[in-house]
Every structure is written in structure tokens, then in C-alpha cells.
Amino acid sequence: MATKHEQILRYISELNIGEKISVRRIAKELQVSEGTAYRAIKEAENQGLVSTIERVGTIRIEKKVKENIEKLTYAEVVNIVDGQVLGGRNGLHKTLNRFVIGAMKLEAMMRYVEAGNLLIVGNRYQVHKLALEEGAAVLITGGFDTNEEVIRLADELELPVISTSYDTFTVATMINRAIYDQLIKKEIVLVGDILIPLQDTYFLTVENTVEKWNEMNQKTGHSRYPVIDSSMRVQGMVTAKDVLGEHKQTPIEKVMTKNPITVNENTSVASVAHIMVWEGIELLPVIDENKQLIGVISRQDVLKALQMTQKQPHVGETLDDIVTRGFQELDDDSEYDYQCEVTPQMTNHLGMISYGVIATMVTETGSRLLQQYKRGDIVVENITLYFIKPVQIESTVDLKGKLLEVGRRHGKIDVELYHEGEIVGKALLMAQLLDR
Q: Which of 19, 91, 116, 378 is the Cys-Cys partner for 158 at CB 3.0 to 4.6 Å?
């Protein structure tokens, strides 16, 4: 039987898109405490089923699929710009296709305004009205208001009119940044992208015996299976090693490994690779928010995904990408191994190279050195960093690495950083090795 938490989540998921919900309403309708209702609504927000907006409340929104993640809902825009909704609240769940900045004459501006757009403009009432009539939402900057006619039209068409105290340039920058951040997220391969779904997953139940494991093994050729209960919740994992020498009527529950490590759809594949290497695991069950089995992921799937990630072009550039792109390998006759220029993005508010960038430089040096001995990626376990002297903007950092120890799964590297011949930093890096 489903728990109260699961019942609330199911109730929320079945609500109409755009419908407003509250803790008190759910507590009353489902006969649960307000604390239970509050926790379930927060979980629904984490799952992307609802969005909470200041001065508006919590509304049911359409859960976005990953392919559409770079598009924002109007509800998300309200949160990004700390906005106030003046009208059209029932349309907050809708997704905007693009935004248009209204900084030109009316006739010229309207050529660019289409249905599904968000027009960013000041206190120009006529523009607000025309944009709504074209099917576009309106974001009013500078803290300005609009008139009653525009608000009535927004409510009628279910197109949000939002007001923010920020200026137009700042608002455009904030929305661009939000879209850019989501583009970066889109590139990260998650378990949900590569898992073997439940309909193609082989599993055993706690009522099965070792004889059933033997039958499954002969049928599928696999030796590892998740073990579930009557509610599809994962209770254990069973492998060939667990059933070796056991009587065929021995219950699986007696030989399985209880409380196994599990992951969910939103776990990154890189994180799964780290778990599998560290724990020596070949297969991981994938569960949903209710702890129920929805599929499995194997080490082979993870390695293939990591290989594909290396070959894909990147849309959003992270700070790590900026640092590694500027890395240059020096000639053999140089006393240093690598060189990197300190760009403005790599500095802190004082104009000095940031601590995080130095850590990235050390990691990149260690990774390149280890790849000379063994192909693969590294997962950093520990960095001991001695920050000796600050390095300012537009300086050049030379790096020298020394491989202290390398094993089948681990490596230890000493890295020294120099600027104009003087040592400015020193680090000891310990890392796990992930095969490609």
C-alpha cells in the first residue's frame, strides 16, 4: 500500500497544469497533517511538478523533459528576476520560446513579437496590450506597473504580466544566465539517460529461492539481480558469489546483500562511475522518489557513456573548460610540463588567481601525467594545496608535475606552480583512475 507521502505526490501529479495548491488544502483533502503535506509539496518541487512563487503561491507546472530543458517557464522567470505577478497568473506554467527586448519604436518592435515570447519592456501600456494580443507575456522592468485594462486582458488570455525592480539589461543578463546554466546541465549525462528500463530489467523477489536464481542465470546469462519486495522496493542484491554452494531451496532473502547501494535518475554518470570503482560494483539498481525499482545500470553502460561524453561537442562552457582550454603542453627542453595564462574569469574579486582555478590546474596536470601511463579519467580523492604566493590577472603560470606512485586504480602526483621562475604553489594530488 502506498504511503501518505506517495499518495500526496500522486495527487499533485494528477492536478491540472496551472492549478494552485496549498499545504492547508492538501492536508484537508487527503486527511494528513500539514507537516506531511508540506514535505510532499517540497518533494514535488524538487521533481519539477510544482513551482512556488512569492506573493503568488505554489502552482502545478508541466514537468520538462530533458530535451526541452533550455526553455524556461514564466514561473521560473518570476523567481529569477524576483518579480511580482500583476496579471495572468493562470499562465505561469507556460514555457517561453524566446525573449524580446522592447527598446525600439512600436512598429519595429512588434515585428519581432510572436506567440510564446516574453517581451521585456518599461512602462509602455500600449506595448503591453499589443504584446498580449499577439500571444506574448510581458516583463515590465524598472519596478513600473501597468493599467487595469492590460491586467484584465492578461487574466483573460492567461498570459503573465510580471513586474521587476531590475533594469532591462540586468533582467536580460539574468535570464540568459539561467538558460546558459541549464544548457550546461543538459550536457551532463545522467543515469536516466542510459539506464536499462524496468521492462527490460531482470530481478528476483524476496519470496524466490536460489533455484529461481539458477533458472534466471540459465535464461539470461546474467549473474547479478536486484531483489525487490511486493511494493517494488529494492531490498537487496544477489550475485553468483552469494548463491555459491547454497541449497536450491534456500530463500534468496537469506543469501542476498541487504540494503544495497542505489542511485536515482538524476545521479550523474560520473558519480556512478566513482561509486562502482570505489565499491567494486558491476550493477546498480535505479530507484524513483518512492524507493521503487525503475531499472538498472551496469558498469559497461557507464563506461560507454563516459566515452561518448568525451566525443560530444559542448554548448555551455564551465570554468573548468576555460582553464583546460588555456592549457599548453611545453617542449621537452623546457623545465616545466605545462603552461596556462590567468584570464579575468579565473580570478577572485581582488584580481588574483582563485583557489578553485588552482585546484583545476593541479587536477588537469595530474590527469595528463597519469594518461601517459594509463588511458582514462581521474576522480580526485584528495588535494593538499600550499598557496605560497598570489598570482595576479593576465600572468602566466608554469606547472611541473611528478608522478610519485601509480597503481591499478589509484595515482599520487606532486604538482608545483611557478610564475616568472618563482614557485607560487605546491600540491599533492591523490586520485582514482576510471578506465575508458
A: 91
